[in-house]
Prior knowledge:
Elements: E1 3-9, E2 17-24, E3 30-37, H1 46-49, E4 56-63, E5 69-77, E6 82-86, E7 89-91, H2 98-110, E8 113-116, H3 121-124, E9 127-128, E10 137-146, E11 160-165, H4 167-176, H5 181-192
Parallel strand pairs: 4-10
Antiparallel strand pairs: 1-2, 2-3, 4-5, 4-7, 5-6, 5-11, 8-10, 9-10
Helix pairs in contact: 4-5
Amino acid sequence: xxxxxxxxxxxxxxxxxxxxxxxxxxxxxxxxxxxxxxxxxxxxxxxxxxxxxxxxxxxxxxxxxxxxxxxxxxxxxxxxxxxxxxxxxxxxxxxxxxxxxxxxxxxxxxxxxxxxxxxxxxxxxxxxxxxxxxxxxxxxxxxxxxxxxxxxxxxxxxxxxxxxxxxxxxxxxxxxxxxxxxxxxxxxxxxxxxxxxxxxxx
Length: 202
């Protein structure tokens, strides 16, 4: 098994930082590795704590009387200098559980209200997003959205268009647009099944 010998924090930012890991590979040879993390302190890195507490939350919500539309956002991302379709999402604040974060984030990004639904742990527990680059993990919250869309709660740094997509639009999005991986698989379920939340039923 590989071994981490020393960790150095290379940046000091509010939302994400870069850490250098001086390590040895499984054969004992020196190995350099870099990890981006939401952790603001070295001791909070998941490779140190061994605890998988969610940094963020993703919200998969249905909208409309027939629950036949899914709430998406079309957001500009600097990393690709383009727009991408995603589920509404955001960071979990200190002292906040991820269900509370989901309600808050959906309202901030879309203006909509979220009625969460209880699900088994395996469907909502935090999973790692891009483990080759970061120790970030996100939980998923499911529910039903209602209300009117507004941009007035968005931050100036956010460039977000709210999309209430039916199955025809979802099919087009998957074929033609940039889509976040965590969103794309759920959208495939949405296309296939009359009840998109069927898999949550025990």
